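Morning. Coffee machine broken again, so started the prediction first thing and wrote up yesterday's gels while waiting. Chain of 235 residues, entered below exactly as on the submission form.
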Amino acid sequence: MAAAVSVDKPFFDAQLAEGNALWPAMMRCNAHPCPAKQEAAGPLSPDALASLRTWLAQIPDSGRDGELPKDAVFFWDFGEDSRKLFLLDDGQLERLADVAGVTLHAPALARIVAREERRICREALGAELFDYAQSRGQYRTGAAGDIVARRDKELPLPERCRAHGWLALYFCSLRWPKELRRVFLHRLARLSGEIGTTVSLGNGLSDTAWQALWRMLKKCLLGEVAPSWKPYFTA
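Came back before lunch.
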């Protein structure tokens, strides 16, 4: 069943402007077969089904995992900025989770002075992410760091960084419409695997905490992951 469309006309018109890369991303995320149309056309042959799955697998946004949906959802209302995270491809989402995780813990990483501890963290996180945390990353943490400050203290700091990067994306999506959130959470579960932390999806964040988290994620996205997306976000 298609989702109800509630897109503001100015936003939708802007996506049709020449050279707007957000529109193709919106098309990709909605490029999946509709079961109703399949039933009307008759059952697909095994060869046709294999070809369809091959075509779906080539689409950068792979939230469908190559499977035919039982209840296809089409969603177009990406006027609210945080929902645009849904349009990132798998590689961009993984990069954002990595950057967000070290950003959340950048102040702690920047305080590490012991040579052996620095070596361990640098090897676990990778030189690029560790150096980022030691420099500009710690100035992007803001109040978002308080959200995870007391979580998973039993885990080594590099493992907390990885777990909390994915957790940030989970928490950010909790305010999205349920049809969008359901697909995104399934996708995060596939990409993150065993992240080492307990996620209680029934417990969201206060408005103040959510805004702090979104500001941090937006800085990570536009500063480190996809700078070319800056025109598609409000100031």
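The mean pLDDT is 80. Going to sketch it on the whiteboard this afternoon.
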